[in-house]
Specification:
With 270 residues, this protein is an alpha+beta fold. It has seven helices and twelve strands.
Length: 270
């Protein structure tokens, strides 16, 4: 993997100055943090972030970064991008099914804008580079039963991960530095934040259907044999893309059924 060079510290003004005016205007607040337990938790639990509008933050490190299904997210200091956004939506958790996928499309667009090739997406939240995990997305919601949902979208991207930090990761992984891509974390943060803000506005207006075509072109497992795991349950089928809501279409014995993300894990069948 990449060797870690000098640490580029995150800088609020550099990140904000790299945003288009529409993106800057959309932010109610933006914070650059040092070491935090979790950027998602920081926004979800912060009393200062209850005002209407989009709140966002980045951090140098996370001591308790989280992935899906309760897994930890390796978050060493100054090595990667840890970014979260919070906003309120008049939407149920079910209607947000495709938000993780739409965010993945936005991140792929941001990476293409800095000349990263070989990006693919694995349902429902993995960002792959040449088949290895480069990053991930975690969408968490609060409320929504009788009023607006508070939605936090967390994004982690490996920029220059030290080998020792990634030694415990239980799947093949990579970082941008290993592919000789060195955008700088501030520039990367600006590009990702701008694309994700724009995607969230579009998603709020028209839902996942607007992203479905783009997601299909990035789908790492389409038409491949896959194994779906949920607890002790194992099912094997063929991935046939996603439906208009972002549910996985899994073909088993000639019949396709939609699978919601929930507490499931998807991987290529062996």
């Amino acid at each position: 993997m990449a060797r870690q060079g000098p640490v580029e510290r995150l800088d609020k003004e550099r990140i904000l100055s790299g945003l288009p005016a529409t993106a800057r205007d959309a932010l109610r607040s933006f914070a650059v943090l040092g070491v935090i337990d979790s950027t998602n938790r920081f926004l979800m639990e912060g009393a200062a972030f209850t005002e209407p509008g989009v709140h966002a933050c980045v951090a140098e490190a996370q001591s308790a970064g989280r992935g899906r299904r309760g897994r930890g997210w390796v978050s060493p200091f100054g090595a990667n991008l840890y970014l979260s956004l919070l906003y309120e939506r008049d939407a149920t958790a079910q209607s947000l099914q495709g938000l993780s996928l739409a965010t993945g499309v936005a991140v792929a667009r941001a990476l293409r804008s800095i000349d990263v090739s070989g990006i693919a997406l694995k349902w429902p939240n993995d960002i792959l580079l040449d088949g290895c995990k480069l990053g991930g997305i975690l969408v968490e919601t609060e409320g929504g039963h009788s009023g607006p949902s508070r939605v936090v979208t967390g994004i982690g991207i490996n920029v220059d991960m030290p080998d020792r930090a990634g030694a415990g990761i239980d799947q093949p992984w990579t970082d941008l530095g290993s592919h000789d891509v060195h955008p700088g974390r501030n520039r990367l943060a600006s590009r990702v934040l701008a694309e994700v803000l724009a995607a969230h506005v579009q998603f709020a207006a028209v839902g996942f259907e607007a992203f479905r075509g783009a997601w299909d072109t990035l789908d790492a497992l389409r038409d491949r044999s896959v194994e779906l795991r949920s607890g002790s349950s194992r099912r094997t089928g063929t991935a046939r893309g996603v439906d208009a809501a972002g549910a996985l279409l899994l073909e088993i014995d000639g019949r396709c059924e939609p699978v919601l993300s929930g507490d499931v894990s998807l991987r290529p069948a062996t």
